Amino acid sequence: MRRAPHRIAVMGSGSWGTTFAKVLADADANAEVVLWARRAEVAAEINEQHTNANYLGEIRLPGNVSATDDPVAALQGAELVILAVPAQSLRQQLGEWGQAIAADAVVVSLMKGLERGTDLRMTQVVAQVLGVSDDRLAVVSGPNLAKEIAREEPTASVVACSSQETADWIARSCTPAYFRPYTNTDLVGVEIGGIVKNVIALAVGICDGMGMGDNTKATIITRGLAETTRLALALGGSADTMAGLAGLGDLVATCSSPLSRNRTAGRLIGEGNTLDQVAEKMTQVAEGIKSGSAVQDLAATHGVEMPITAAVVAVIDGRVGVKDMARLLLERELKSEEIH
Ligand SMILES: NC(=O)C1=CN([C@@H]2O[C@H](COP(=O)(O)OP(=O)(O)OC[C@H]3O[C@@H](n4cnc5c(N)ncnc54)[C@H](O)[C@@H]3O)[C@@H](O)[C@H]2O)C=CC1
Ligand SMILES: O=C(CO)COP(=O)(O)O
C-alpha cells in the first residue's frame, strides 16, 4: 500500500481551502500541510495565531498547518496538491504555478465551477494546462459547508478519481474523526453534481428572497436534480452518483443552508438587489453566478434540456425579472417526470 503523503500543498486559503487543510492535518499528525495564501497578512496570521479569522472566525488550525504567500515554497516537495481558488481564476493561477508542481504529484480539485468560454470542468483545465494524467487527477465533493466542517461537525464526502487506487490513497489522507470520504471512480458525475448544485441553489435562494414556501423550493431541488442528472448522463456520468453525496447530498445541503453563498446570492437577487449590489454584499465566491451560463452552453452542446439553469441564467443576464421566472418554468409543455 502506498504510504501517506508527507507534504501536502493546499493552494487557496479561503474558507474551504483552510478548512480542508485542517481536515488533512487532523487526519495525520505527521503530515506537513502548507497553505498558499494570496495575501501575506493571511499567511502571517495562520503561522502566528493559527487562525484565518476572516473566513473561519476563531477556529484554531492544527500545529502541522503552516502558510506562505509564495506558491513555489508551498508546492516544494508536495506529493499531494489541493486546488481551492475561485474556478474562473484557476487557469491563470496554474499558468503561474505550473512549473513548481512535481511531475508525479496527485492533483485534487475542491472547486465547484465550470470555466466560462471553454465550458471545461476544473479537472479538464488542470489536464489541459499541466498535462496531468487521469490517474493523478481527482475531485473531492459532497455536502461540505466549510464552516460546519471547521467546527468538526460530522459529514461525509466523495473522493473521485478514475483510478480506484489513487482515490483510496487520497481518502486515507483526509479521514479525521469528523470527516468520512467515500470513493467513486465517476469523476465526471461527482464534478458535475458540485457545479450544477450552485446554479440550482441560486434558484432556491431567489424563491426564498421572494418569500416563497417549501413546496416551491422542494420542486426546484427535485427537478434541479433531474436536470443535473440529465447533464451528467450525457457526459458519461452515472445516475447512482447523482443519487449520492456529491449529487443529492450536496444539493440538499447547499439549497437548505443559510451558510451557502450561492443560496445567499440568490436570496439577495430575489429580494430585488441588482447583480452589482449582490457583488457588493458578498465577500466570498458564489460560483453559480459565473458558471451558470457555461453550464447552459455545455447542456446545449450535448442537447440536454436544463430549464431551471436557463431561467437562472436569464435572470442573471437581466433578460428576465425574478417575477417572471416561475411563469417561464410553469408554462412549459407538460411532460413525463422521467429523467430521459
Ligand atoms: N466554502 C465552502 O463551503 C466550499 C467551497 N467549495 C468550493 O471551493 C472553491 C473555493 O471556495 P472558498 O474557499 O469557499 O472561497 P472563498 O471565497 O472563501 O476563498 C477564495 C480564496 O481564493 C482567493 N482568491 C480570490 N480570487 C482569486 C484569484 N483571482 N486568484 C487566486 N486566488 C483568488 C481568495 O483570496 C481566497 O483565499 C470554490 O470553487 C467553491 O465552490 C467547495 C466545497 C465547500
Ligand atoms: O459547496 C458547498 C457546500 O458543499 C458550499 O456552497 P456555497 O459555495 O454555496 O457556500
TrEMBL record:
Domain Glycerol-3-phosphate dehydrogenase NAD-dependent N-terminal per the UniProt entry, residue ranges: 8-166
Q: Which residues bind substrate?
A: K112, R261, N262
Answer yes or no on keyword Lipid biosynthesis: yes
Q: What class of enzyme is it?
A: oxidoreductase
The catalysed reaction is: sn-glycerol 3-phosphate + NADP(+) = dihydroxyacetone phosphate + NADPH + H(+); sn-glycerol 3-phosphate + NAD(+) = dihydroxyacetone phosphate + NADH + H(+)
Query: Where, in this chain's numbering, is sn-glycerol 3-phosphate bound?
Result: K112, G142, K197, D250, S260, R261, N262
Binding positions for NAD(+) per the UniProt entry:
G12, S13, G14, S15, W16, G17, A146, R261
What residues does NADPH bind to?
Answer: S15, W16, R38, R39, Y55, K112, A146, R261, V285, E287
Task: Please state what the protein is called.
Answer: Glycerol-3-phosphate dehydrogenase [NAD(P)+]
Q: Which organism is it from?
A: Galactobacter valiniphilus
What gene is it encoded by? gpsA
